[in-house]
Structure formats: structure tokens, C-alpha cells
Amino acid sequence: MGNFGEVKDSHLADGVKMGHFSYIGNAQIGANTNIGAGTITCNYDGEKKHATEIGEDVFIGSDTMLVAPLKIGAGARTGAGAVVTKNVPEDTLVVGMPARAIKKLERKTKK
User: Fold this and answer.
1) In this predicted model, what pLDDT tens digit does every residue of 26-46 receive, in sequence order?
2) What proportions of the chain, in percent to the nearest 5, are helix, strand and coil?
């Protein structure tokens, strides 16, 4: 975990890397996932807190906003600065504001 990272009411599985200036709240993060610097889970809507689920082998680009409730499938990726407001299927790259899928990815399995 990088400097000034905060994790609250969350579980980070083995091999998760989380960059500095990040906030992960009410989330489940799968194994071997990378959370880029400046990424936050936007889990509070002013009344309720919502969950974020991130699968295994996911790459979350720096400065990504994950607007809960949200599910990110295994092997998915977000581009830097993406604002993710909808669930992301497995092995899919999303970019932009709001984030949109631009291509299906081929996952490389670790041995």
C-alpha cells in the first residue's frame, strides 16, 4: 500500500497492490489486482454506503473513480482517470467519463 492510502470495511486478497492517495471503502478486491494511485471507491450517496466488488487480476488505472454499487469482472482494466458508473464485464477495457468499453481483452494466466 502506498502513502496516504485508506482502507475501510474492505477486504484485499493476496497480491493486491494499492497506490498512494487511494481510498477503498466497502469493497472486496480479488487476488493480484492493481489499484492505481489516486483511485477511490465512491461508496456513499449521501444516505447509504454501497459495495464495490473487484475480481482477480484486475488493473485499475491511476485516478479512477469507482462509483458504487459496482462490479468489476476478473481480468478487466480501467484507463487512467476513468469514472466507472456501470458494471464492467470480465476481460474488458473501459475508459473515459463515464467509462465505456473499447475492447475485449485476452487475459494472460499466471503460472
Assistant:
1) 999 999 999 999 999 999 998
2) 0, 40, 60
